[in-house]
Amino acid sequence: MRYGVILAGGGGTRLWPASRRARPKPLLPLGVGGRSLLAATVARAARLGGVVIVTAADQAEVVRAEVGDAAEILVEPVGRNTAAAVGLAAVHLAARDPDAVLCVLPADHHVAREDELVAALSRALDIAHAETKIVSVGIVPTRPETGFGYLELGAARGDGVRAVRRFIEKPDAARAADMVASGEYLWNAGIFVAPAARFLGDIRRHMPEHGRVLDAIGAGADAAALYPSLPSTSIDYGVLERTTDLLCVSGEFGWNDVGAWSALAEIVQPEDGGGVRVGGPLVAVGAKNTIAVSDPGTLVAVIGIDDVVVVQSGDAVLVVPRARAQEVREAVAAIERAGLGRYL
After folding, report:
1. Which helix (H) or strand (E) holds 318?
2. Residue 307: which of 292, 331, 290 has the closest Cα?
3. Shared domain check, 227 and 276
């Protein structure tokens, strides 16, 4: 059986104030057709097989309300990063089906060309099942992006599949430009496929502490008691970067990780003056390239300021230049330090 395993435990602080602890980034209506990012990901995964969402205990209720019976919800006792989350899903599904093949997907990415991505995922699932391999789905870069990790490609096979030589952390601008120009690098979207048994075998080999805890949980031990002892480690660092036979399929897919409010300019149809809006109406007077997000029925008016982001959500308002949209998490940290956590 094929399963889409959706990782939905993150907070998305760079999309504050719309993204809050009680309404995290995957629940924002930024998917194709105005769906939430999570709902769009669930619909995509359901075209491949069964759907399991791994989420944090404090988000389980809102996630369940968002997806209803469209997915099975697997709740982590505490958040321990993606290696633990993928391992928990692999243990859970391997107990049900020893031949289960998992397609791991972040819950909070926008995909414009869903048919193309589903076709690539289906192909990756076929390869992973037939060859017992881990197969990444890389994104063909459209610009020298410094905010993403990259996959350096290795040898090509006759079927268009490439080996992955190594992972590259977020590069500086000059190196990113050289990498993109070479055509030998892909963006790492955090999408990968493998049999559950392969995931668990690699976790035992490369992350023995995780392996012992996950095996105990699989044998019936209390996950709430054991899970908090796990180190917080990403699946990229813990397993994928140490895997010597990692493969990759690729495409562009109209993919966007919506990592900051400035990303809306790439995924929302612009209005006059190049502005984009989500939610309520926007009026821009002598202002170009505005990004406005507000609650439905709430008007945003911008006068005489170009390239600005204005976000109103509930009891909070954010105003930031588009060029500094990545710094919103710094505002979130400052709000926390000021003892104003009720706004987060």
Report:
1. strand 316-321
2. 290
3. no
Give the CATH number for residue 83. Answer: 3.90.550.10
Same domain, yes or no: 225 and 290 = no
Looking at the fold, whether 198 and 337 belong to one and the same domain comes out as: no
**What is the dihedral sign for C-alpha 220, 221, 225, 231?**
negative
Q: What is the pLDDT of residue 298?
A: 97
Of residues 337, 267, 261, the one with CA closest to residue 294: 261
Domain count, the chain: 2
Domain hosting 317: range is: 261-343
283 and 202, same domain (yes or no):
no
Residue 214 CB neighbour total at 10 angstroms: 29
List, edge to edge, every strand of the sheet that includes 276-278.
Answer: 276-278, 291-293, 308-313, 316-321
Same domain, 142 and 209: yes
Same domain, 26 and 138: yes
90 vs 192: CA distance, rounded Å: 13
Pairing label, strands 291-293, 308-313: parallel
- Please state, in angstroms and rounded to a whole number, the distance separating the CA atoms of residues 230 and 80: 7
Distance CA 285, CA 275 (A): 11
198: enclosing H helix or E strand: helix 196-206
Distance set, CA 236 to CA 39, 85, 156, 217 (Å): 25, 12, 22, 22
| Predicted local distance difference test score (pLDDT) of residue 11 | 75
Question: In the numeric block, which tokens belong to residue 127?
Answer: 């390869």
Among 207, 228, 256, the domain boundary falls at: 256
Of 88, 86, 160, which Cα lies nearest the Cα of 123? 160
Mean predicted lDDT score pLDDT of the chain: 95
Beta 291-293 vs 276-278: how paired, if at all? parallel
pLDDT digits (tens, 9 = 90+) for 277-317: 999 999 999 999 999 999 999 999 999 999 999 999 999 99
For residue 195, what is the enclosing H or E element?
strand 185-195
Distance CA 39, CA 237 (A): 28
